[in-house]
Design goal:
Elements (H helix, E strand, L loop, with lengths): L2 H31 L8 H13 L3 H19 L2 H24 L17 H21 L7 H11 L4 H14 L10 H30 L1 E7 L3 H11 L5 E6 L6 E10 L3 H11 L4 E7 L14 H8 L1 E5 L4 H11 L3 E4 L17 H16 L3 E10 L6 E2 L13 H11 L7 E12 L2 E13 L15 E3 L6 H12 L1 H15 L1
Parallel strand pairs: 5-6, 5-7
Antiparallel strand pairs: 1-3, 1-4, 2-3, 7-8, 7-9, 9-10, 10-11
The chain binds inosinic acid.
The site of inosinic acid (IMP) has 17 residues, from strand 7 and helix 14.
């Protein structure tokens, strides 16, 4: 059979089994439940309640409610599912009509009591076992009887909630609604109906889940045999099944051995045992049922990826309270890491920068945070190195004009006056980053070459940005803005190296 034929055949098979399931459902409903006015869940159950109470034909209520629910299904469920649902709804509609026409009636217009008078409970048990099997048959062939099944299948599509559980919730409300129909007699009589309905619900859903899980049930084999190669080969080629070989060590024999590990569908067990027995009747085999198997050929894992991705984001502290630096670094690292500032971890210390080099200062700051807070962190130190000034201000950039530091206006003023009438205006920004992850220290650097302008230009950025013009541009960092600066700056280069390192770990 070609793949196309296989697909068509599978589809035809689905429709045939759905029809069979609906046939069983119709028999169960009209022969075992309706004659005794037994209420049930689902839209069929709701339609029956309305019929018992008002005489409004069951199949008509059924088709009206399903018409509305189909609009919902159109949005949530796939086209294929919808086709089968429409097929199922119309088939069940006609089957219910037809069954009521041909089944002999009692005086009250309800189908006759096959199980005889007073056999309500027995009839309910038989009816529920059949409806449970019927619904499972429909579901297992990607169909639905419409109604609450649409709600259940929609929920099941996104969440790992069993179909049975969703149906129970919907049915609970439908059956409970009997209490509001005075036509069902006194409150006590209505309560009886509801109790019967709950029994129907429990039985039907139990059978439904049982049949569905039995079909899906998976088992795990461990096979210990001297002929492990032959067995693995046979399972691989004859059953077209994957095999994993684990290294084992026999404690008593003291010998190395191989153990075959296989996850399979329960219905493959017999063939598996046959093969093993044919090759090595003395093989030692353990078979256990597993709660679930997820992966190719088995079930799909129904968890939301987004939350996992978010949880995976690694937290890392940037030892700074400089908001400009923080936002520059977050723009580069933000997607993959949660970058926290010193303030965000409650650190308001004025960390002394007494090192002789940029690297020393970066290390001092990172180590301070790591020692005090035991968190993965990194710190940077940046310096502006001007050729005509022998590399000054360099590590002293922050305090170039004296004072406690970071008076950018005073620093720029001093630098411009030092370079007055000097044609050699070559300079570079150098950043060194020290990273500490689980106690391990690594450093990265980044350099951008450029020139010092004659005067201040531009309003963006910070520090020496208004007087530094990077190579290849005729605007200062303060004129270029953070968008461009973040692509070419000293810090961007160092942070990019840091990001590459962190992502490779
Ligand atoms: P620190 O790395 O924060 O110690 O900075 C040393 C000095 O360089 C400070 O005066 C900062 O304002 C200045 N600085 C650091 N990074 C930049 C930058 O990207 N552009 C301009 N000035 C900077």
């Amino acid at each position: 059979m070609t793949i196309d034929h296989k697909i068509i055949w599978n589809e035809v098979k689905d429709y045939m089994f759905i029809a069979l399931g609906l046939f069983l459902y119709t028999i169960a409903f009209t022969v075992f439940l309706m004659p005794y006015q037994i209420v049930a869940g689902g839209v069929t159950g709701l339609s029956a309640i309305i019929y018992y109470a008002t005489g409004f034909h069951l199949e008509n209520t059924y088709i009206i409610i399903n018409g509305i629910l189909l609009l919902v299904a159109l949005k949530i469920l796939g086209y294929k599912f919808l086709m089968k649902t429409i097929f199922a709804i119309f088939t069940l509609y006609f089957m219910l009509r037809f069954a009521q026409d041909i089944i002999p009636k009692q005086d009250n217009g309800l189908p006759f009591k096959l199980m005889g008078e007073g056999q309500d409970f027995m009839s309910m048990i038989i009816g529920c076992v059949i409806t449970g099997i019927a619904l499972a048959t429909v579901f297992l062939h990607n169909g639905s009887t419409g109604g609450t099944d649409i709600i259940a299948a929609s929920v099941n599509k996104y969440h790992n909630v069993s179909l049975g559980s969703v149906l129970i919730a919907a049915d609970f409300c439908i059956i409970g609604s009997c209490m509001f129909f005075p036509q069902f007699g006194t409150y006590l009589e209505r309560a009886h109906k509801v109790m019967f309905g709950f029994c129907v619900m429990a039985m039907e859903n139990y059978v439904l889940d049982y049949v569905m899980n039995a079909r899906r049930q998976s088992v795990q084999f461990f096979i210990f045999s001297r002929k492990w190669q032959e067995i693995a080969n046979a399972i691989g080629t004859q059953m077209n099944h994957g095999v994993t070989i684990l290294d084992g060590h026999g404690w008593y024999t003291g010998k190395q051995m191989k153990v075959l590990c296989i996850l399979a569908k329960k219905n493959e067990s017999v063939n598996m045992f046959r093969l093993i027995k044919m090759i090595d009747p003395n093989a030692f085999v353990s078979q256990s049922s597993v709660i679930g198997v997820y992966g190719e050929g088995f079930d799909e894992m129904k968890v939301k990826i987004k939350n996992i991705e978010e949880k995976k984001k690694m937290k890392i502290v940037f030892a700074t309270n400089n908001l400009n630096k923080l936002s520059e670094v977050r723009k580069i690292l933000g997607n993959k890491f949660e970058v926290l500032s010193l303030g965000e971890i409650g650190c308001h210390d004025d960390i002394p920068e007494k090192g002789q080099t940029l690297k020393d200062n970066a290390l001092i700051k990172a180590q301070w945070v790591y020692d005090k807070y035991h968190v993965n962190c990194f710190a940077d130190d940046t310096g502006l190195e001007v050729d005509a000034l022998g590399g000054a201000p360099g590590v002293y950039s922050a305090r170039y004009a004296g004072g406690v530091g970071h008076d950018s206006e005073a620093n720029m003023k001093k630098l411009l006056s030092e370079l007055e009438n000097n044609d050699n205006r070559k300079a570079r920004f150098r950043t060194v980053i020290a990273l500490i992850i689980d106690g391990k220290v690594t450093t990265f650097d980044g350099i951008v070459n450029g020139v010092i302008t004659e005067g201040k230009r531009g309003g963006e950025g910070f520090g020496y940005d208004p007087i530094f013009m990077p190579e290849g541009y005729n605007k200062t960092f303060a004129e270029l803005g953070t968008g461009i600066k973040n692509n070419i700056s000293h810090r961007a280069k160092a942070v990019q190296k840091l990001a590459d390192y962190l992502l490779k770990r």
